[in-house]
Amino acid sequence: MKTKALIHILAIAAIITNESVIAQSVTVDYSQDVTTTYPEVYGVVIKSPEADVASLDMLQDHGIKFARVTATLYKTIPNSSIADYNNNVNGIQDPDNWIWGYTATGSSGGSDFTWALPLLKTRGIKTLLSISYTPNWLSHPTYDTKEGVPTDWAIYKDIVGKIYKRFQANTDLVGIWNEPNRHCDPTGSPYSDSRYAYSAIYDRGADAVRSICSTVPIGGPETSHASRSQSPWLAPAPVDFLQELVDNTNIPVSHINFITLHHYNTGLDVSAYKRVLDVPAYVTEWNARPNVSSNTDPRMAGKRSLAWAGFQLINIIKQGARGSAIYQHIPQVAPDIFATYTGADTPTLVMRTFKLFSQKARLGNGNARVKDTAYSDVTTATGALNALNEAVALISNDTDQSKTVSVTLNNLPFTGSVAVKVYKASQNDHPDSVSTSYVTVSEGSISTSVSMADYSAAVVRVYPETPEAGSYE
């Protein structure tokens, strides 16, 4: 009896083990389009010191295609007054006399990062210039004057227009303000809450940019994912700021060309904004938590950072965002603090995921069609047909368990022999390493197995090729 019981227990164990392997699966249907994904999904917010030019080469080498750069008005414009500005005292109206470049206060002090714009463009990285805040002397009196409404619209427009004109050749997109639901104080102004104050600021800022260029895309509202709870003024829901831009009859439709929003942690919902206005949407800040220079959330450093980045990038891909920027491109100050590089240009682990998806899946090569994907017992996954007409599957394993994932690709757009390439990113797996096999497409499908380490990401890339033809990476 004991022998039979033991056999029965072993049989059950075998079934459970087999079911757990089968449960770890990803299935992509290449006949079903879900949305489009874009190279600009692989982006960063520039907050690095001006001296770390080599770190921009690192970004290029890891497939970064998009960067958000901030011009911070209260740092850039020297101390003055309305009267002195109007009289051009000390040449205050000349941008050559303004304060440009990274300052000793660093990103926490709201430094100017426009130094990076021409260097990014020469590296083939698309740029968004965010023109944000108010010079303190131009603001209505508030708790924090850099967040106040300008008291003189003509001066504000003159400043915004001159900043855009200075960087026009190296700017692809222009954003107006940063997180108005957290950093736009209507105190002392004619506006009853920050939503209406921001709408007025956007109206004038967009006018100033459009007076210089009739075609450059302009967008906002660049809202935080949550309003500041301690705000002394009414702080509406983030999406209400976009609604107010749309409802403001002073703002022409041609002045709202794209949407920007910020999101931290989980729960990103781009569709909430797209339901208000159906234009391209950019997630211009994302990470596990804000305050990245001091936050020790385990998703933001070490081996888990690359798996969590994979999870969030796949989420952004599946929502069809036009672009995104992880917050932020900075050097590492401590091992458990988020950073994109150490030293002058050595990439941290999180950058492996960007290289994996942008370069190894070739999603940085051009627009790709996202395909219907089912998955089980992995954190998330998606499939796409990239710009080279290659079938790719992206997988994130943001758990402390290794997994063997069965990957099935159905209704492939090619027949015959195909190369199946598997790339991985983990603490011990570098995406430049590749495993290649050759199979024959059977009734439009192929299957393969991917072993994934704990806290890792993987890419499967499939395209027509025979073993005799050799292989390209």
Description:
The protein has 473 residues and is of the alpha/beta class. It has two domains: 24-35 and 369-469, Immunoglobulin-like, CATH 2.60.40.1180; 38-366, TIM Barrel (Alpha-Beta Barrel). The protein contains twelve helices and 19 strands. It has a nine-stranded mixed sheet with strand order 17-16-19-14-13-12-1-15-18. It has an eight-stranded parallel barrel with strand order 2-3-4-5-6-7-8-9, surrounded by four helices. Helix 11 crosses helix 12 (350-360). The longest helix is centred in the first third of the chain and has 22 residues, at 2-23. It is elongated and about 75 Å long. Mean pLDDT is 91; it is low at 1-22, 104-110 and 230-234.
Question: Strands, helices and their partners?
Answer:
Layout: H1 2-23, E1 25-37, E2 43-46, H2 54-61, E3 66-72, H3 73-76, H4 82-86, H5 117-122, E4 126-132, H6 153-167, E5 173-176, H7 180-183, H8 194-212, E6 218-223, H9 238-247, E7 258-264, H10 271-274, E8 281-287, H11 303-318, E9 323-329, E10 341-342, E11 346-347, H12 350-360, E12 368-376, E13 380-385, E14 391-397, E15 403-410, E16 417-425, E17 434-440, E18 446-452, E19 456-464
Helix pairs in contact: 6-8, 8-9, 11-12
